[in-house]
UniProtKB/TrEMBL annotation:
GGDEF domain: residues covered: 471-583
Protein name as catalogued: GGDEF domain-containing protein
SMART domains the UniProt entry points to: TPR (SM00028)
InterPro entries the record matches: GGDEF_dom, Nucleotide_cyclase, Rev_trsase/Diguanyl_cyclase, TPR-like_helical_dom_sf, TPR_rpt
Keywords, alphabetical: Membrane, Transmembrane, Transmembrane helix
Transmembrane segments: 415-436
PROSITE patterns: GGDEF (PS50887)
Source species, domain of life: Bacteria
């Protein structure tokens, strides 16, 4: 062998071994970014200092990618957005196109975390198409997880379920791609599925996924801390207070794994919200104030708004209404600046309820009107976001060749495109129509139409009144057959004939209604349910397909109460404790 060739071979071999070692270290660093961001930051800095002009470009690009995810984990969302943009340019410069979807994922998560969902959705759609094109399951699983989480937040449950199922399947192919880049912990994928089930009312399955997430090998450090807080909230809503308290205490013990002030502030705010549900208002206020101070210092506007709203709830519970109103107005000011119409709707409803209880009818009515206007704009925003999402997905499907990591598992069937059309365009339009209908029915004496799409305001008002008077309150959820959709006025008349003047009938959708029973226990609600069935049966034999019941607990919110009623519907069907009330079978 020629000496020069031999020496060159040695050099290339050593270089190759060094490159392999560097990539192996980055593989370990990927998990550290999620589990211990402070330690990951030190190691990233060390690797950056070791880079030289002769280092392979892939090393620099991957370090940028890891650093971008690190900034997300530390709550530095604007910095992550900027770095993602630079990373895309750098990847394309070095012909590393397969790295681009990872930077799209990082930027999308930064945008979504600051409340800019309209910018996040197209990035997710583009990233998903690129991940399929370049066969990058690590990127694809993360992008599907994020899109599933956003759809969950927007109550777009069917596409969210499909995305999260695909993400879990794709995660099994993490290490089949040529080069590893970055990927989310398996525990986060399972947790996202649990959160979807929790949001849709299936508490039993949600808790099971929460426990599965905690059992994963990568559920360590900060990852485990976040999962513990998440599971503690679920178990409290499920009524298992002892297990919830145990998980919460374990989560608190892991607070030292959070090294930055922003990371700590986010956790303090979550713990504060759980302490509110436990009735520990002083402790909740202390934690929320610490969080707010940090969020203000780092200009985290979305978190400032959310924490002000939490503090308002605490002050209302403590009876300090003047401070509660101040915090509510502060939250409204931030929400207006950010265009967060969904939050504005809820905040205006809070003020409307406050002024109504004080007997200040005009102020209550004014805030109710503002809530209505915010609801209209929120529906428009949601329709715009979903249309942008659908349009981006459709354009990608039409222009891209059908290549993927696993065709049978990853390509989304065309049938889902029509589902997205319905969910993204028709449903918001229907809600808008119902909102307009409601506006025509609102009067200065606050008689609220039973068809009001802002149905939670009615329940929240009833719950607040019941809590102040220390009276029970129970709700009934009725799933209706589509065959009665054309004759809802008759159904309304039949039901109202068995209700008291203080009871409320509210439509959640054309095929679901809620009956609010103030001053009624769970047993009393069961009797009302039987009376309603007996009243409806002679008129229509197949009107009701399922029923759920939930009684208000001390720390219930309107959302948690409705979720428990939905869970009651599911559990009744699964356990057969109470049959589905197919009225035709009762004759």
């Amino acid at each position: 062998m020629d000496l020069y060739a031999f020496i060159l071979g040695i050099i290339l071999s050593i270089t190759g071994m060094g490159a392999h070692a560097a990539m192996s270290k980055m593989d370990q660093l990927n998990q550290l970014v999620y589990q211990s961001p402070s330690l990951a930051q030190q190691q990233i800095s060390e690797l950056e200092n070791q880079l030289s002009p002769s280092s392979p470009p892939i090393h620099a690009v991957r370090l940028q990618m890891l650093k971008c995810e690190l900034l997300i984990q530390q709550g530095e969302y604007q910095a992550a957005i900027q770095l993602a943009s630079l990373g895309r340019v750098n990847a394309k410069k070095h012909d590393l196109e397969q790295a681009v979807p990872y930077f799209n994922a990082c930027e999308a998560e930064g945008q979504a975390s600051t409340g800019d969902f309209k910018s996040a959705m197209p990035l997710l759609e583009t990233g998903i198409a690129q991940a399929k094109q370049f066969k990058q399951p690590q990127a694809l699983a993360n992008l599907l997880r994020m899109r599933g989480q956003l759809d969950t937040d927007q109550e777009n449950y069917l596409p969210a379920m499909e995305d999260l199922r695909l993400a879990l399947d794709v995660a099994e192919q993490y290490h089949t791609q040529e080069n590893s880049w970055t990927w989310p912990p398996q525990a986060y994928l399972l947790s996202a599925m649990g959160n979807l089930l929790y949001a849709s009312g299936d508490l039993l399955q949600a808790v099971q996924y929460a426990y599965r997430a905690l059992e994963q090998d990568d559920a360590k450090g900060k990852v485990r801390h976040i999962l513990l807080l998440n599971a503690a909230r679920m178990l409290r809503d499920a009524g298992d207070y002892s297990a919830s308290e145990n998980l919460l205490n374990e989560g608190k013990q892991l607070l030292p794994t959070l090294s930055t002030q922003l990371e700590q502030a986010y956790s303090y705010a979550i713990i504060a919200s759980i302490e509110v549900e436990k009735g520990n208002f002083s402790k909740a206020e202390e934690l929320a104030q610490q969080s707010l101070s940090t969020f203000v210092r780092f200009r985290q506007r979305l978190s400032i708004m959310q924490t002000n709203r939490l503090l308002a709830d605490i002050k209302f519970e403590q009876g300090n209404t003047a401070e509660a109103v101040d915090y509510t107005l502060a939250a409204i000011n931030t929400a207006q600046q950010m265009g967060q119409q969904g939050y504005l709707q809820q905040l205006y409803l809070t003020l409307s309820d406050y002024y109504e209880n004080r007997g200040e009818a005009q102020l209550a009515y004014d805030n109710l009107q503002l809530a209505f206007q915010a609801a209209q704009l929120a529906n428009k925003q949601l329709a715009d976001i979903r249309f942008v999402q659908y349009k981006a997905r459709l354009n990608r499907e039409q222009s891209a060749e059908p290549t993927s990591v696993n065709e049978s598992a990853i390509l989304i069937p065309l049938g889902w495109m029509w589902v997205l059309v319905i969910l993204g365009v028709i449903l918001p339009a229907t809600c808008l129509y119902l909102l307009i209908y409601r506006k025509q029915k609102v009067t200065t004496d606050f008689s609220i139409s039973s068809r009001a799409p802002i149905h939670y305001q009615v329940l929240e008002l009833a719950m607040n009144n019941a809590k102040r008077a220390q009276n029970p309150l129970t709700i009934l959820l009725f799933g209706l057959s589509p065959t009665v959709a054309d004759d809802l006025p008759t159904l309304e008349e039949k039901i109202k004939s068995k209700l008291r003047e203080q009871d409320k009938l509210v439509y959640l959708s054309p095929e679901s209604l809620m009956v609010i029973l103030p001053g009624t226990s769970h047993t009393g609600a069961q009797q009302v349910m039987e009376q309603l069935i007996g009243r409806i049966q002679p008129w229509h034999k197949h009107a009701i397909i399922s029923i759920g019941v939930a009684s208000m607990q001390q720390f219930d919110t309107s959302t948690s109460l409705v979720k428990r009623a939905m869970a009651s519907q599911v559990s009744r069907q699964k356990s057969n404790e109470v049959k589905l009330y197919q009225i035709g079978a009762r004759g």
